[in-house]
Amino acid sequence: MGHLFEGQKLHGVSSIPHLQCLVGSKSDPLRLPEDGYEEFVPGYSKLSRPERIAHIEAEKSKIIAFGDAWNLVLKRFGQETVDGLSKVSPAFTSSGESPRHRALKEHVIKNPGIVGASKYAEVHPEYILPSQDRLDILFKQPKRWTAVEVKSRVSDSVEGDYKRGLYQIVKYRALIDAMRRDPGHNVPVEVTVLLVLESSLPEDLQPLAEKLDVEAILTRLPE
Questions:
Q1: How many H-runs (helices) and E-runs (strands) does the chain carry?
Q2: Are the beta carbons of 81 and 75 closer than 8 angstroms?
Q3: Domain covering 99-218: architecture
């Protein structure tokens, strides 16, 4: 099934992007494909982690850029076409997460000291709360949890995203506090919920952050 598109020739299309790149490992913080992806992309298993990230993000960009051409693929296999494929924003991956956001998240995971977490803490990317909300990262230590929401510089161009981030922190604090009252979750007394930013919080939102008692930490991605 994974080789279904191989050998398919479509008018005006040189090659079909690898949808297999969307099947990531659940144990990987960035959900990168495992070495089995080598079956579709020879040499993948020998790539360094940064090279793998670059390759997968490039392939996802190709999938998005393929746009309406996916309708040619659907027609070839007798499926109904889909409207609006050319309108998907290339700034975000198929998961709704921008490559920059994912990179910032991995940077924090690799450097827990940014948020004051121990390097020995358990790391839980995309931690699902009982409400089905997802924390970008949760660092668990026996006596302390550190929950993190990250906003990359992509948020600079997304209207209202920083304000949404502030209220996300408020919501996550309340949810984790509720979890503490449920013995099944074993939430420790000390819990910190932080907003990690790649760009400075806009000045007009700083008074609101203070009123909401939201701590925003500024960090930079290594170039």
A1: 5, 5
A2: yes
A3: 3-Layer(aba) Sandwich (3.40)
